[in-house]
Amino acid sequence: MTQEPRKEGYKEQREEINMFAPRLARIEITPSGISGLDRLLAGGFMKGAIILVAGNPGTGKSTLAAKFIYEGLKRGEPGIYVNFVEPRQDFYAHMESLGADFEKYEKQGLFRYVEALTIADDEALAQQLEDIIGMAMDMNAKRLVVDSVTVMLQILGKQKSRIRKLLQNFFVNGLKSLGVTSILVAEHPYGAQVVGEGVEEFVVDAVFILRTVMKRGKPLRIMEIRKVRWAPIRFSEVTFYIRPHEMIDIVLPRN
Ligand SMILES: Nc1ncnc2c1ncn2[C@@H]1O[C@H](COP(=O)(O)OP(=O)(O)OP(=O)(O)O)[C@@H](O)[C@H]1O
Ligand SMILES: [Mg+2]
After folding, report:
1. What one-character-per-residue DSSP string does 232-254 give?
2. Residues at CB less than 6 angstroms from ligand 1
3. What average pLDDT does the chain have?
4. pLDDT by residue (tens digit) across 67-94?
5. Helices 88-97 + 61-74 axis angle, to 10
6. Beta bridge partners of residue 209, listed in sequence order
7. SS3 string of 153-171?
8. CATH class label, 47-209
9. Which of 126, 167, 174, 249 could form a disulfide with 241 if both were Cys (CB 3.0 to 4.6 A apart)?
10. Which ligand 1 atom is at minimum distance from the Cα of 98?
11. Which chain residues have CB less than 5 Å from ligand 2, an ion?
């Protein structure tokens, strides 16, 4: 039996694989629990990743972020939802309508809701963020949401260097180094070309843009996967539904 000739470039391919292997081995992927999304992202989110979820009003940003926390709670992973927009009662009522019982996990000490509606200046914000890092350490939090980072950054005005410094300190030196995976919700005004002040996209590990379009007279929800640092992306757009119990149901194309 004759042996098949070795393909040209084989040695080079092997070397290339070996070169990347140690780097890949160091990346810890944890399932988000959002089934369509985990399949799309080769298993889930990178541990400690910072994920930006941006979109127009009503596109499902908070529902996706809450689903991410809720799936963690179901797996025993402590989570924190920091809300600069929505009072506690509104959040719990909205979640209840989607069949999610956050109160149960709050009573168990697994979940904390931080209502941050009245923060007006840099100093108060810095204190709040420090408290959140302390809370994340005490709870051994694995997941965190900031809803919305747009409102949080408005407190700092439009100075990009201050925004970068804050994002670096809180998210990268703080949460990421603790191994907390975070979703930042960003409000994306109609017609805007860049997300937020345009700086957030550069410090985050993944960017998802949510949109609602009209198809045959019916609204269709779309998630655009714009950037993912830890996984190859097979589809740049998927459709999803918001409905009770599943909260978010992502539909992958057939091939
Ligand atoms: N119980 C429910 N069942 C089905 N759909 C729901 C339910 N509750 C809310 N929705 C849908 O979810 C959408 C709002 O989702 P969500 O609050 O997550 O959006 P958002 O992008 O965070 O909005 P905003 O920019 O106003 O904060 C609404 O458009 C509504 O159609
Ligand atoms: Mg919202």
Report:
1. --S-SEEEEEEETTTEEEEE---
2. 55, 57-63, 97-98, 242-244
3. 85
4. 999 999 999 999 999 999 999 999 999 9
5. 80
6. 54, 224
7. HHCCCCCHHHHHHHHHHHH
8. alpha beta
9. 249
10. 1
11. 62
